[in-house]
UniProtKB/TrEMBL annotation:
GO MF, one annotated term: DNA-binding transcription factor activity
Family membership: Belongs to the LysR transcriptional regulatory family.
Origin: domain of life: Bacteria
Statement: the UniProt record of this protein carries the keyword Transcription regulation: yes
InterPro entries assigned to the protein according to its UniProt record, in alphabetical order: LTTR (IPR050176), LysR_HTH_N (IPR000847), LysR_subst-bd (IPR005119), WH-like_DNA-bd_sf (IPR036388), WH_DNA-bd_sf (IPR036390)
PANTHER family in the cross-refs: HTH-TYPE TRANSCRIPTIONAL REGULATOR LRHA-RELATED, TRANSCRIPTIONAL REGULATOR
Pfam families: HTH_1 (PF00126), LysR_substrate (PF03466)
UniProt cross-references to PROSITE patterns, sorted A to Z: HTH_LYSR
Keyword Transit peptide found: no
Organism: Hoeflea olei
Name of protein: LysR family transcriptional regulator
Length: 300
């Protein structure tokens, strides 16, 4: 079978058109005519053999195939731009210190480290997986250059790069037997204090008038998942990174409070950003766009 080489300019126009809301606005942004951008879209549809967009009123919306293709298009463009940047930019040397919330340690960190190491093999990375309080303290003390942490509302200059839904999580093997009207307090599995999500869970239950007790405390996320999977208590967390043995509970079914979303921020040290930390920040944003649902990443 003959392989098809997708046109990078056409991919860029396609992504720009979807992000701008119309290909006329994308044409202005790219400095091209609307007809030229439309021609590139037609070229992509010919190359893929699929209809990517369809008209809806005065605008365009993605088809089912277009939704799938958009994710690949963004990843192709990110990899293209990363490759060009690695070749064109001066070879960087030095070191950078990165902290990352432990929810993202196994899923996002390997991708970030791999991309950065390939682009800048002479840069040494010092990484730390930690809890929110620890990461913020180390940023404040200048012990980290970048940190990916939950938004606790204390950092006014933090860059909010995603918003993840909070949910109640329980064991998939041991159904929750607690009943709101049975008189027993709700058992919670939580991380050691201070913990932002532990505090949120307690506050939400207090507002709803639901009695609770801390049934299991862990210093690490692995311990929290183990206790939740064993049915010792339920946890408040985002669904990202949860093991298969833990599932999202239906809040309405169990008479639990509905929960808001939680912001994810990229924190920088209180000093001018270096080319090394700037490129690492770009790779972190790209990795999150690859791994998180589009609805969770503003502007994705």
């Amino acid at each position: 079978m003959r392989l098809t080489n997708l046109d990078m300019d056409a991919l860029r126009s396609f992504v720009a058109g979807i992000e701008a809301g119309s290909f006329a606005q994308a044409a202005d942004r790219l400095g091209r005519s609307t007809s030229a951008v439309s021609a590139q879209l037609k070229k992509l549809e010919d190359q893929t053999g699929a209809k990517l967009v369809q008209r809806s009123g005065r605008g365009l919306v993605l088809t089912e195939g277009g939704e799938v293709f958009l994710s690949y298009a963004r990843r192709l463009l990110n990899l293209n731009d990363e490759a060009v940047s690695a070749i064109r930019e001066p070879e960087l040397e030095g070191w950078v210190r990165l902290g990352i919330q432990e929810d993202f340690g196994e899923s996002v960190l390997p991708q970030v480290l791999g991309r950065f190491a390939r682009a800048h093999p002479k840069v040494r990375i010092e990484g730390r997986i930690g809890r929110n309080v620890e990461l913020r303290e180390k940023i404040a003390l200048g012990h980290l250059d970048l940190a990916l942490a939950w938004d606790d509302g204390t950092a006014t200059d933090a860059e909010r790069i995603a918003a993840l839904p909070l949910c109640w999580l329980g064991s998939t093997e041991e159904p929750l037997s607690w009943q709101v009207h049975a008189g027993e307090p709700l058992p919670l599995a939580a991380l050691e204090a201070p913990c932002l999500l532990r505090t949120l869970a307690c506050n939400q239950l207090d507002r709803a008038g639901i009695a609770w007790r801390i049934a299991f405390v862990s210093p690490s996320l692995a311990g929290l998942w183990a206790a939740t999977a064993a049915g010792l208590g339920i946890a408040l967390r985002t669904p990202f990174g949860a093991p298969a043995s833990v599932g999202v509970l239906d809040a309405a079914e169990h008479h639990l409070p509905h929960l808001p979303s939680l912001g994810l921020t990229l924190l920088g040290a209180d000093k001018p950003q270096t080319p090394i930390s700037a490129h690492l920040a770009t790779i972190i944003r790209q990795a999150l766009q690859d791994r998180l649902p589009e609805a969770w990443v503003p502007g994705a």
